[in-house]
Design goal:
Elements: H1 3-11, E1 14-19, E2 23-29, E3 35-42, H2 45-57, E4 68-70, H3 76-83, E5 88-90, H4 93-100, H5 111-125, H6 137-167, H7 172-177, H8 188-196, H9 200-204, H10 208-217, H11 224-235, H12 244-279, H13 285-289, H14 296-306, H15 316-323, E6 328-332, E7 335-339, H16 346-362, H17 364-375, H18 380-401, H19 407-410
Helix pairs in contact: 6-12, 6-14, 8-10, 10-11, 12-14, 14-16, 15-18, 16-17, 16-18, 17-18
Length: 423
């Protein structure tokens, strides 16, 4: 083989990595699917150096790094590969499983074989996959905090539901006392009362001073006496009760569940503060928060999912598909069906629902657009999703052109038909 052939093979080399918790299998193939090298590396700095050495042996250079395909977008290995300046493709494991059938119909599987499959995916279909975006470190840090805060909110909801389900078994008075509150058991007053009276018996023995102190300690500043009277009246009614010993045991369980709820509520507040503080340092924060319905925290969640690499979504349609707001069409023969997307970024779709709902009261144009969709036959969620889809396209335009939201341009009212002149 002459030097020109070797150079051609080196330039078109691709790498696949089948990752695991403590080791990773690596395979490098050329443009003719020939295996150039394979290696099992450890999940540490030594293993990463071994990987770089293998890539260098097959033509890797700072000017022309070998692209890498792997089944995850997270972890230290991926972070170090991205820091080296190379393109890293996160391939969905389901896609890898389908590609595997092209090479072996016997359904055999091994870590090395999966690494080869990943390398061949880039060799044949690199243009069909999107490399991980080149976001700034600030955007990545915002993503870490925003996702952690969103996870904490979901954990808080689960902790609240567990506590509520438990209280229904023996403590209906507490649930009735805060049924009218928007936050229910998440209210600071509810948690303050539970801390001093985890059982109906203890609640019935509460004095006025104890209830007043708990209400004040929760942060309430107005109508303290009226709230104290209301709570005392609820707790002193006649309620169904568990046997005393069982009630006491359930009260101990309540204190344990309450401690978990308090901890996750505190985590939500702390992470929200840190996320907002970091988000306001980003140059795109002003543009994102100029949109109706987007506050600092929801804006941070939006930025966390779309990033600040503007080459990631070349068209607004790409971003809409990623968020799941754009409809998808299924056609076969004479059958044609348009439905909403199920494969999407669930975090972005979740914040999109909140954004669209908040925009209804913050923007006349958004509310008018929603009403038009409802009149055209859309149900509630479909109309909200369509509004989110439109505003996402506007956000893509504003971020690309570096301009803030303008209500008159974004929701330009449709032209009215001319009025016929009187005869």
């Amino acid at each position: 083989m002459d030097s020109d052939d070797l150079k051609e093979r080196v330039v078109n080399a691709t790498c696949g990595i089948d990752w695991a918790e403590d080791h990773h299998d690596v395979a490098v193939v050329d443009s003719d699917a020939r295996l150039l090298g394979k290696l099992r590396i450890s999940d540490d700095a030594t293993g990463f150096q071994d990987l770089l050495r293998l890539l260098a042996e097959h033509g890797d250079s700072p000017d022309d790094p070998i692209p890498v395909a792997i089944e995850t977008s997270r972890g230290l290995l991926v972070a170090c590969l991205r820091a080296s300046g190379r393109r890293v493709y996160a391939i969905n494991p389901l896609a890898v499983a389908r590609y595997r059938d092209r090479h072996a119909v016997s359904r055999k599987k091994s870590d090395h074989q999966d690494a080869v499959v990943l390398a061949n995916i880039l060799r044949t279909d690199a243009s069909q996959h999107r490399p991980l975006p080149s976001d700034t470190d600030l955007a990545k840090a915002i993503a870490v905090l925003a996702r952690a805060q969103q996870d904490a909110v979901w954990d808080r909801t689960r902790a609240h539901n567990r506590l509520r389900s438990h209280l229904r078994e023996y403590y209906p008075a507490l649930l009735a006392a805060f049924a009218g509150k928007r936050e229910r058991l998440l209210a600071r007053e509810a948690r303050a009362i539970l801390a001093i009276a985890p059982t109906p018996a203890e609640a019935a023995r509460l004095t006025r001073n104890q209830v007043r102190s708990a209400v004040t300690r929760s942060g309430r500043q107005r109508r303290i006496e009226a709230e104290t009277d209301r709570l005392l009246e609820v707790f002193r009614r006649t309620w169904l009760r568990q046997p005393a010993l069982i009630e006491k045991a359930m009260g101990r369980q309540t204190l344990a569940l309450l401690a978990q709820l308090d901890a996750v509520c505190q985590a939500c507040d702390d992470l929200a503060h840190d996320t907002e503080e970091l988000f306001l340092q980003h140059p795109d924060a002003e543009i994102i928060t100029s949109f109706p319905g987007l506050a600092t925290l929801t804006g941070a969640r939006i930025l966390a999912e779309i990033g600040d690499d503007r080459t990631r979504f070349g068209r607004a349609g790409d971003l809409k598909a990623y968020a799941g707001s754009a409809p998808i069409t299924r056609e076969s023969g004479k059958s044609r069906r348009v439905t909403h997307r199920r494969i999407k970024n669930s975090r972005l779709a979740a914040v999109g629902r909140h954004w669209a709902f908040a925009a209804l009261t913050a923007s006349r144009g958004a509310h008018a657009h929603y009403n038009r969709r409802r009149k055209s036959g859309d149900r509630y969620h479909a109309a909200l999703r369509n509004l989110f889809n439109r505003m996402l396209g506007q956000l893509h335009h504003c971020l690309t052109s570096h301009q803030t939201f303008d209500e008159a341009i974004a929701f330009n009212p449709p032209a009215q038909p001319p009025v016929a002149a009187a005869a």
